[in-house]
Amino acid sequence: QLYLVESGGGMVQAGDSLKLACDGSGLTVSNYDMGWYRQAPGKERELVASIVRGGGDTYVEDSFKGRFTISRNYDKNTVYLQMTNLKTEDTAIYYCHIPSMNYWGQGTQVTVSS
After folding, report:
1. Are residues 109 and 12 in contact, defined by beta-carbon separation less than 8 angstroms?
2. Are 54 and 29 in contact (CB under 8 A)?
3. Is the dihedral of CA 13, 91, 22, 56 positive or negative?
4. Which of 46, 56, 72, 85 is the most buried (most CB within 10 A)?
5. Phi-psi category of residue 13: left, alpha or beta, with phi > 0 → left and psi -120 to 50 → alpha
6. Cα–chain center distance at 14
7. pLDDT at 113
8. Is the pLDDT of residue 1 over 90?
9. DSSP secondary structure letters along the chain
């Protein structure tokens, strides 16, 4: 069975950094375009960043550029979201996603306090 498992969330203060991880179980993450999304309370789920299969070209939504970076570790079969200078409005559940299979992980909670 195939799983995406996110980890690395937590409670931090504004200005701190977090690195989220999305581990692929039963699949090779480098074979798929993948994305990090987030959903804040009362808001719709939104794309944060994505990475292309194979070569790994990356895309970061304009609103997160300069603070968030997406990357992949082939050996660990993991996709990361490095988040820096976190703001209270970054509080959300963060999900990884494989669009071609509409696979979602269970999400990891990030809470940023002032």
Report:
1. no
2. no
3. negative
4. 72
5. beta
6. 19
7. 98
8. no
9. --EEEEE--EEEETT--EEEEEEEESS-GGGS-EEEEEE-TTS--EEEEEE-STT--EEE-GGGTTTEEEEEETTTTEEEEEE-S--GGG-EEEEEEETTTTEE---EEEEEE-
Give tens-digit pLDDT for 60-106. 999 999 999 999 999 999 999 999 999 999 999 999 999 999 999 99
pLDDT digits (tens, 9 = 90+) for 34-48: 999 999 999 999 999
Beta-ladder partners of 82: 19, 69
State the Cα–Cα distance between residues 61 and 13, nearest whole angstrom. 23
Query: What is the model's pLDDT at position 55?
Result: 72
Please check the confidence at residue 54 and state whether its pLDDT lies above 90.
Answer: no
Task: Please name the amino acid found at residue 43.
Answer: K
Let me know: does 7 contact 20? Beta carbons within 8 Å. yes
What was the pLDDT predicted at 96? 97
Of residues 111, 10, 95, the one with CA closest to residue 47:
95
Statement: residue 19 has pLDDT above 90: yes
β-pairing, 34-39 vs 46-51, is antiparallel
